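hey can u check if this looks right to u? its 312 residues, i copy pasted from the old doc so theres a chance i mangled smth
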Amino acid sequence: MSLEMDTIYDEHIAEEKLKQGTKYEKLAAVVFKVLNQNDVVIHDLTLRGDGKKTGHQIDVTVQSPNSTILKRILIECKDYDSKVGIGIIRDFFGAVSQIKPDEAFVVTTKGYTKGARSFAEDEGIKLAILRGFKEEDWEGRIKAIHIQGTLISMNQPKLTWVPASEQEVEKFNSNADPKHINTTQVLDARSNYFCDQNGNPIENLQSVLKPILNSLPRNPDVLTTGFHEFGEIKYVNLMGVLVAIKGFYYEFSSSQSVIETVVDQGGKVALLVFKVLDDELDKVIYDQDLDKFTFDDDGEVTFKNSEDEQLS
């Protein structure tokens, strides 16, 4: 009997008094529900084979909810401090041979003797280990993903409008280059808009310029300069003067930084390992997996709330 397994059951399923080995059986039932969430998983069910009189107590039964195509899995659970021997497998085979399920498992904590493994292989019974998770179990698994990347960000750009014609230049009385109107202050005022010919705001300045600037190449070693021409004439209201512009010159430097992100298991705690011998199935069971489930009065594993059921 494993005190560790009882503690996991008490903390994540329900704290209740049960006979020895029952909490391990119910933990196994929850694990099979985690692995087969669309199926019905029932703890402690008595079954008979077709036309047979003898009833067999089955620790965990997994069956499909579709009654027309019945899939059934039988599971025998043994919370032992030593390896399971051939006698346990042979006794379980008596039930398997009469009920004839699609699959049959024996689940234990420590392992199986050579004789038990040979007999199980002969009769098509799968052997599995369900035990507490150990730190060394992380070997060969992804515990966390470290992502390192280089971020190149644009520093504050300097932009200058290019008026659409010489007549537009004359509208703006400035001591600056008569062909170029500096727009730095305009860009900082997020409420500014491109206007129609009557001066009515129609496009937010930032929403138009940001996609253009974000599409430009960035090099942290070189000052980036260039000219962008709009596909059509745009109008801006500068200091009360409506000016038609055809594009803008840009100039900006770039900064480079290295960022590192660690993607872990989202705060989940590894509690159990479920491994099928001679099979690829090797599953870590987390606290959040167990926390979703409980049992109804008939021994069926059910979701604790409807939200978990919808997410399954």
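The first strand starts at residue 40 and ends at 47.
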